[in-house]
Specification:
alpha/beta; TIM Barrel; two-stranded antiparallel sheet; 9 helices; binds phosphoenolpyruvate; binds manganese (II) ion; chorismate mutase activity; transferase activity; aldehyde-lyase activity
């Protein structure tokens, strides 16, 4: 059902007035994790100030170590929702288990399924039964075919509002956190009718690569870019090395807008 052969025209997903997949790149910015009301409000103000319509932030964090910050859960999601409402933003947030979905749904606009859960088939079926868009991230060791099959689980359960997100794959290369598989973008665009995003933060894991990676994503035809922004990345409870501070975010967004005007 996600195949281009089944449906030749691009799927466009409308969230809070943003038309994802219609041609002009969309942007999802926000902190890695919700840490406090003040933290998310500052980021929401910066995003809203640019006229953007989406904010991300993790409340249920899938962390590699059980001793790392696990997120504030529903309380954190409520903080994100409050900040988003103040600046007219839609909330993109990760859900890690079907059992959280019902409680979390009123506070989110787009459900993220993270890389670690790309083949959590019960979660895929559960988000397939809601009527809100799903941002599905590629598993860190998933082939493109497996990624497409994960999306197929969601659409087969009834939800065709799916955004695919390339976020880097695990390779032998250690210079970046993951290896951004940039050619996955045009392949996914050819094989499916779904919008394709690139997460430049988790793919590169390096602040200095966020801009070139986003330019590459846009140039190769991505429908949008995701990147993490935090008021004070040095004290962030997760992903301190790659989040942008608010001034870096300003410069980053300006540079991207200039780059896009060349097209
Ligand atoms: C995230 O976007 O917050 C995240 C954990 O990313 P990924 O699932 O791609 O690792
Ligand atoms: Mn992160």
């Amino acid at each position: 059902l996600v195949s281009r052969k089944k449906k030749s025209e691009d799927t466009v997903i409308t969230v809070n007035g943003e038309r994802i997949g219609e041609g002009t790149p969309s942007f999802i910015f926000g902190p890695c994790a919700v840490e406090s009301q003040e933290q998310v409000s500052k980021v929401a103000e910066a995003i809203g100030g640019k006229g953007l319509r989406l904010i991300r932030g993790g409340a249920y964090k899938p962390r590699t170590s059980p001793y790392d910050f696990q997120g504030l859960g529903l309380e954190g999601l409520k903080m994100l929702k409050a900040a988003a409402e103040q600046y007219n933003l839609a909330v993109v947030t990760e859900i890690v288990t079907p059992s959280h979905l019902e409680d979390a749904l009123p506070y989110l606009d787009v459900v993220q399924v993270g890389a670690r859960n790309m083949q959590n088939f019960e979660l895929l079926k559960a988000v397939g039964q809601i009527n809100k868009p799903v941002l599905l991230k590629r598993g860190m060791a998933a082939t493109i075919d497996e990624f497409i099959n994960a999306a197929e689980y969601i659409i087969a359960s009834g939800n065709d509002q799916i955004i695919l997100c390339e976020r880097g794959i695990r390779t032998y290369e250690k210079a970046t956190r993951n290896t951004l598989d940039i050619s996955a973008v045009p392949i996914l665009k050819q094989e499916t009718h779904l919008p394709v995003f690139v997460d430049v933060t988790h793919s590169t894991g390096r602040r200095d690569l966020l801009l070139p990676a986003a330019k590459a994503a846009i140039a190769i035809g991505a429908d949008g870019v995701m990147a993490e922004v935090h008021p004070d990345p040095a004290v962030a409870l997760s992903d301190a090395a790659q989040q942008m501070n608010l001034q870096q975010f300003d410069e980053y967004y300006d540079s991207l807008m200039k780059f896009m005007k060349q097209y």
